[in-house]
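hiii so um. not sure if this is the right channel but i have a protein structure encoded as tokens and i wanna go backwards to a sequence. like what aa goes where. can anyone help
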């Protein structure tokens, strides 16, 4: 098909992604776009070749979902039908008013194109948005050749590979999202109307809210989660605390303080605890009865998934899940990490694991370790253990570009980038090795023990 140039409409999920991919493919970091109908969604133009086919590339974007699912007009008023009727009421997708300009841009550009290439995020939600774009574009140009670009990182090598290996979009993934959206709409709308009208009839809610219209919203996911929170709150409130007593023992030396745990743990009988305590005070000499030493291994973590990223960011940096994903998304759009929304914790056999480490060799903090990791003589390298999860859309989260810190980064950007890099270096390393020593002592017939570890090898 080489020879005659074709005009290709490329559509990304966000304006920033469209600009980043256009910069990579055009090899022009300063590429400037022209305005479309929507002033937020620029159109970038440049020439390119896809598998020997000369192309005039038009690159634009949407902003998330282009369409919304809604009931037919006669069912939208609250008292137009019984809430139960919403489970069978007709629904349809349409473009809301605030996205009509994006729709007009797609229609105008699609009319003069021969190909449509979809650069939406490579997950089910992105696949669904892709088919929304297809519906709009094919409505004005049914002869479009439709292709899908699959990528997980905004880096040159992956974008080049993606554009030269275009695939068909996955209608099954898109249909799965349509089904979920319809279930959410029907359950949410029917239960929201039902409980709001029921409670308004049973209680004078408007007086509490100063006459404002009150909606008791129901979400298929949020409401059951709220139920778990309330149930746990009731359990805590119903708990009746009971006093208990324990005996603490410590030994101070020039090397520090060793704290010993009481073998009985604790007692709920105050008198018994006091008697045992007085026995220990009267005969305070401690006799070492046993010393055990053994090697302990701390295994590397599984490759990083979204849930694990959120957990660790919360634990180490006290960042909320929402803010963690906002920062991670910005790092992804800057090309520094792979796509941050993934359930996968298992690297594909096709992934060049060593190349990812090579990128980090110049870093002032962990660069030396990256160099040692790549040196076969150190014996530090170990292929990562898979966690058994694969969403078939994206690899685990990993660094895609070296950075010692960008000028526009906040401390949270630095923290998340460092977390992603260190986690990756850890998961391709051998287990950390430690020596654990347990000492047991006897004081007046009561057993106490202390445990300590020293590192032999650690990442």
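sure thing!! here u go:
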């Amino acid at each position: 098909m080489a020879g005659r140039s074709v005009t290709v409409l490329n559509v990304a999920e966000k304006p920033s992604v469209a600009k980043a991919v256009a910069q990579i493919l055009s090899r022009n970091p300063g590429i400037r776009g022209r305005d479309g109908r929507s002033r937020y969604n620029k159109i970038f133009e440049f020439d390119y070749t896809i598998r020997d086919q000369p192309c005039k590339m038009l690159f634009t974007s949407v902003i998330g979902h282009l369409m919304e699912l809604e009931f037919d007009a006669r069912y939208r008023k609250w008292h137009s039908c019984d809430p139960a009727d919403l489970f069978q009421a007709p629904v349809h997708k349409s473009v809301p008013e605030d996205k009509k300009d994006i729709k007009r841009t797609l229609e105008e550009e699609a009319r003069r194109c021969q190909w449509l290439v979809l650069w939406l995020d490579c997950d089910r939600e992105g696949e669904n948005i892709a088919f929304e774009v297809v519906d709009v574009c094919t409505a004005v140009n049914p002869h479009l050749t439709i292709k899908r670009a699959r990528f997980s990182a905004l880096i040159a090598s992956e974008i080049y590979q993606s554009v030269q290996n275009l695939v068909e979009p996955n209608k099954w993934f898109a249909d799965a999202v349509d089904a979920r959206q319809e279930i959410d709409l029907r359950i949410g709308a029917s239960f929201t109307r039902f409980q709001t009208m029921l409670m308004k009839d049973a209680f004078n809610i408007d007086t509490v809210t100063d006459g404002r219209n009150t909606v008791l919203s129901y979400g298929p996911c949020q409401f059951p989660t709220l139920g778990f929170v309330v149930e746990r709150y009731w359990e805590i409130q119903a708990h009746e605390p009971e006093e208990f007593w324990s005996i603490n023992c410590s030994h101070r030396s020039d090397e520090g303080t060793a704290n010993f745990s009481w073998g009985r743990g604790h007692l709920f009988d105050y008198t018994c605890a006091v008697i045992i305590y007085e026995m220990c005070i009267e005969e305070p000499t401690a006799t070492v009865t046993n010393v055990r030493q053994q090697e302990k291994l701390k295994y590397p973590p599984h490759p990083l998934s979204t849930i694990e990223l959120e957990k660790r960011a919360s634990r180490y940096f006290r960042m909320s899940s929402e803010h963690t994903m906002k920062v991670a998304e910005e790092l992804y759009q800057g090309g520094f990490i792979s796509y941050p929304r993934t359930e996968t914790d298992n690297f594909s056999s096709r992934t060049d694991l060593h190349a990812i480490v090579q990128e980090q060799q110049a870093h002032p903090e962990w660069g030396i370790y990256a160099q040692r990791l790549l040196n076969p003589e150190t014996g530090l390298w170990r292929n990562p253990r898979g966690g058994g999860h694969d969403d078939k859309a994206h690899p685990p989260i990993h660094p895609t570009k070296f950075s010692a810190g960008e000028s526009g980064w906040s401390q949270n950007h630095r923290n998340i980038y460092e977390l992603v890099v260190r986690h990756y270096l850890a998961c391709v390393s051998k287990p950390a090795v430690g020596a654990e020593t347990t000492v047991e002592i006897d004081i007046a017939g009561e057993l106490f023990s202390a445990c300590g570890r020293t590192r032999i090898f650690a990442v």
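oh and The chain is about 35% helix and 20% strand.
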